[in-house]
Amino acid sequence: MKRTGRAIAALAVVPVLALAACGRAGEGDSDGGTATGDSTGGKTQVRLWTHSAGNPAELEVYNQIMSDFNSSQDNYEVVSESFPQGAYNDAIVAAAVSGDLPCLLDMDGPIVPNWAWAGYIQPLGISEDITNELLPTAVGVWEDEVYSAGYWDAALAIFARQSVLEANNIRIPTVDEPWTKDEFDAALRTLKGAGYDTPLDIGAEDSGEWWPYAYSPLLQSFGGDLIDRSTFLTAEGALNGPEALAWGEWFQGLFTEGLASNTGTIGNEEFNRDEVALSYTGVWNALNSLEAVGDDLLILPPPDFGTGPKIGGGSWQWGIASSCSGPALDGARAYLEFSFKPEYIAAFADKQIVIPATEAGTELSEYFGEGGVLRPFTELTQFAVLRPETPAYAVISTTFETAAMDIMNGADVKQILDQAVKDIDADIQNNDGYGF
Amino acid sequence: MAGKKSLDMRAAKRRRTILLYIPMTLLAITFMFPLIFMFVSSLKPDAQILADVDSINAFLPVGDISFANYGGVFERVPFARFLFNSVFVTVLIVGLGLLVNSMAGFALSRMEWSGRKLVLSLIIATLIVPFETIAVPMVYWVSKLPTLVWENGILKYDIGWLNSYEVMIVPFIANAFSIFLFTQNFSTIPPSIDEAARIDGAGWFTIYARIIVPLSGPVFATVAILTFLPAWNAYLWPLMVVQQESLRPVMVGMQYFFQLNTAWGEVMAYTSLITLPVLIMFLVFQRAFVSSIAASGVKG
What we know:
The complex is a heterodimer of chains A (about 425) and B (about 300).
Chain A: H1 2-22, E1 39-40, E2 43-50, H2 56-72, E3 76-82, H3 85-97, E4 104-108, H4 112-117, E5 121-122, H5 128-131, E6 139-142, E7 145-149, E8 152-153, E9 156-161, H6 162-167, H7 181-193, E10 200-201, H8 210-222, H9 242-256, H10 269-272, E11 278-282, H11 286-293, E12 297-300, E13 311-313, E14 316-321, H12 326-339, H13 342-352, E15 355-356, H14 359-364, H15 376-380, E16 384-386, H16 393-408, H17 413-430
Parallel strand pairs in A: 2-3, 2-4, 10-11, 13-16
Antiparallel strand pairs in A: 1-2, 4-14, 5-14, 6-7, 8-15, 9-11, 9-12
Chain B: H1 2-41, H2 46-52, H3 68-76, H4 79-110, H5 116-125, H6 131-142, E1 146-151, E2 154-159, H7 166-169, H8 176-187, H9 192-199, H10 204-212, H11 217-232, H12 236-241, H13 250-253, H14 264-284, H15 286-296
Antiparallel strand pairs in B: 1-2
């Protein structure tokens, strides 16, 4: 009986002591300071958050930039904390609620207008000489002010094997003369007849932002869009007009006719193993496919469904939190200006296999520079279309994903797109037009 | 005749046993397959996992087998730190939860005081509020709580619990469902035991510690297991309140592997590593687990 009493007492006391002893273990080893910055050893600390945890190649470049910056001057010290990408936005929203955002934070391009509208971030305030040099899709603008800027952008393309296209007498498209819709459809049917069970890997097994990023450019190439960009107040006519319906019918047909599959694995393995003939995928998969396929690999522009080939634009960019002020704000801007050096942009592109955002960075890049094996991707950026620059995009994105998945699964196209328009318009009305 | 009858009965019994074991074996295999797939895939390179996925090879350690993925896990995430954090947080939530909730259950079931039924009703009513709906207000709330911190050897007053162990532990110690289970279980113990103990001079804490707790092993095991699982699997809350990598638990670490191209081999190695403590705990407490489920009629 006595032993039970002692056990209970231990149960109560030991954990409390342990908790007290550990206190805030880990605090202060890498983070510190508030959004407005702390002074340590005469230097103003500038906190920085990235979405790069678990991505050693990306972190290596960031650490190099921070190390170079910190040792280049005596006024500021940038200290970083990295989060895994899948958890990053939730962490940002929680930090915004508790008033604990860092000065510098990276963010996915399409979310920039929403975070600017919500007051999370402030105008970037760095030299226009830098932002003017960047790809237009690497700059985040809201209400005519630059809120974010990035070192790179991505691009989607059609991967193919030259030998397969030639063996099936399929014309090899170029940037100047991409496949038309009829040519593309005919190529898919020919390849299916040649023995490919589902000739096109369109990545439909993926989920989330991939859907609007990959498939809304196809909608735009048909002549539709996610929203009426002349007002940003309604999706009526853009997402459920005749062009959008044509896109929906075509997209559904890919799956009902067995030209594409919604199963398989995320990535490009099916193409690398020659289980599919064509793969609609991103630049980040190009080096792996080049290793698997060699010189036979073709990087082709997406088809022209009526209004020219289109691909999605806008990737991860840097912004400054609204709560950042005083010396820390100066430090944040100084760091950003320092970081946009061509050598860092090139290093980032070559480590991450993404397209450099400046010409100077491109020329220094091993893969994207003159004669680089991934050079064709730089030509595709001319087809890039930004996802709608509106705070409503967060809702547009999930609504479009749901609608496109329903269409893929055989739902009535018109009914689904009409419902999507209603959902998007209701959100815009509920938020008083998001300032438009 | 008697010998033949005995033989027939034994044969019938054997047939019944075989018939029973067939579905049991099929069920066991069904439940084992995901675990076998996970452990086997953790030993294969990504390309082979994807190539094997639509054949029986997915469940067999064949091909290019190595522990390279485990090496990759330790390079990509500070695994030992994440594991320590999860173990530390989970042990404290379970330990303190057993103490606090059993005491609350004791007060609600054994002690006579006005309003206890209303209090129990209010506690049970909180069960209908999903955690996700109160998560954001809770983040704001804990960010404004006072605390004491050691700084340069001095204990200082500060505001905000973010980036601490206590923010991952304290909000989950009191648990309405655990209190309900303890209350229900303690109510089944005859009150005459308390009366006899009080006549012998025992106080309430003595009755709790020396009579009620020793008689309630199964419910303590049930609550321990039901508390352990969500604490070990915690994801949303640590993600929102802990920004420093050095404080993250294992479940948040899972996201490290989902980059543009998922490292599936490393995902499987990581999930194998973080599943092991749960499996070990189940195997160690298997008997208590089964008996507590049977006794309380609660499933996890």
